[in-house]
Write a structure and sequence with these properties.
Uroporphyrinogen_deCOase; 9 strands; about 55% helix; 17 helices; UROD/MetE-like_sf
Length: about 400
């Protein structure tokens, strides 16, 4: 690490340390990032070839992005990589014809399996759900063990490559470096876990009508497994465990309060009590649920996809840390002037008083239209002008 990179890293640590503890940093921290496919297209490489050549083309694409786009965190994040899922013949994650990994609607178990799942969710996941989602595991015990080992090795190899890419970028460009082993990665809250992988979006909403008590009991049953998965060995408020949310925007408020919110809140409270930093991506429109978010422990990091920034700031800005809302779509279709003016608009509303950092409203996956030149112009503007 150069002296300049080391100085930047220390400055960035101080920025986020103040942000995460309710103080006002000297400028707005920049937390916007893109996924691998965006960086690949940004660098002009082939999407298919680069996702299979992670040590070569993908690493070069990530460095190209880092060299031109200013932000305070490692700005390239790993979306689902294809190799481990191909090994397992995945039905839950597939590469589209365009080269993007997608998560189709799928159910890993039937409604009649709820009682067994509630009794022992781990066993049911191993014996029924995984073989359903990954047909390479739906075979005799010996072949299943071999295929599982292949999938695990492939996954760990790809994660090691991405970890090295992030580590190299952190050292070269001086990005924020939280304490070692202080982040728990990404996790679903119990209801979303059931919706995404166990029953599917459509089935889980039907289950709330036909099997309400079993849905509640299933959320409680899987809760300890999810907590264990996402709790790092060295919990620290400077680390991050991210909770992505999918179902609240599709639920009636009374159903959200009955089925979703209890274990959602309990999960966040459990993480915060252990000393972890918790980030929630409030996907969809959460304006109905601002009072519920207000009731969460202090300094939870709330990234919003949609909503009125003025109301969000008014209701939550003195207790929680707000990000998101900036429409990534404007990067694709807008002029540089429009992109910067939109940033000024959100900074004027959300930055005063602190507890805000810059982030997009959605994940940046595809680099299309005017995105390449606009994301550079936006980042340069924020670097020089984003203050409280």
């Amino acid at each position: 690490m150069t002296n300049d990179a080391g100085k930047l890293q220390q400055e960035r640590y101080e920025l986020f340390d103040k942000l995460f503890t309710g103080q006002i940093p000297k400028r707005v921290p920049l937390g916007h990032y893109v996924f691998n496919p965006f960086a690949i297209q940004f660098a002009g490489y082939d999407l298919f070839d680069s996702q299979w050549d992670t040590n070569g083309l993908l690493a070069k694409a990530c460095d190209e992005f880092c060299s031109q786009v200013f932000t305070d965190i490692v700005p390239v994040a790993s979306v689902i990589v294809p190799y481990p899922y191909q090994v397992l013949k995945s039905r839950s994650y597939k590469m589209s014809k365009g080269g993007f990994m997608q998560h189709p609607e799928i159910s890993g178990m039937d409604a009649e399996d709820y009682d067994a799942f509630i009794k022992n969710p781990f066993d049911v996941m191993l014996e029924k759900i995984l073989p359903t989602l990954f047909p390479a595991l739906d075979t005799d015990p010996v072949t299943r063990s071999v295929n599982m080992a292949k999938g695990i090795v492939a996954y760990r190899e790809e994660q090691a490559v991405m970890a090295k890419i992030r580590s190299d970028a952190t050292a070269k460009y001086g990005y924020l470096k939280p304490p070692a082993n202080s982040s728990g990665g990404g996790i679903k809250c119990p209801f979303d876990f059931l919706a995404d992988f166990i029953r599917g979006f459509g089935n889980i909403l039907i289950d709330c009508r036909r099997h309400p008590e079993q849905v509640i009991e299933a959320c409680d049953a899987v809760f300890p497994l999810l907590i264990r998965k996402a709790t790092p060995s060295n919990p620290h408020y400077m680390g991050t465990t991210s909770i992505t949310t999918h179902m609240p925007g599709f639920m009636r408020t009374k159903d959200f309060e009955k089925f979703y919110y209890p274990t959602f809140k309990k999960m966040i409270e459990t993480f915060v009590d252990s000393g972890m930093g918790v980030r929630v991506f409030c996907e969809g429109d959460w304006m109905r649920y601002l009072d519920h978010l207000r009731d969460l422990p202090e300094n939870v990091r709330l990234r919003f996809e949609y909503g009125d920034p003025k109301i969000i700031k008014e209701k939550l800005g003195d207790k929680h840390i707000i990000s998101g809302l900036y429409p990534i779509s404007i990067l694709q279709i807008g002029t540089k002037e429009e992109v910067i003016n939109k940033a000024k608009e959100y900074l004027d509303i959300l930055a005063p008083g602190g507890r805000y950092y810059f982030e997009f409203d959605k994940s940046a996956i595809t680099c299309q239209g005017n995105m390449r030149e606009n994301i550079i112009a936006l980042s340069d503007y924020l670097r020089d002008n984003a203050t409280y």
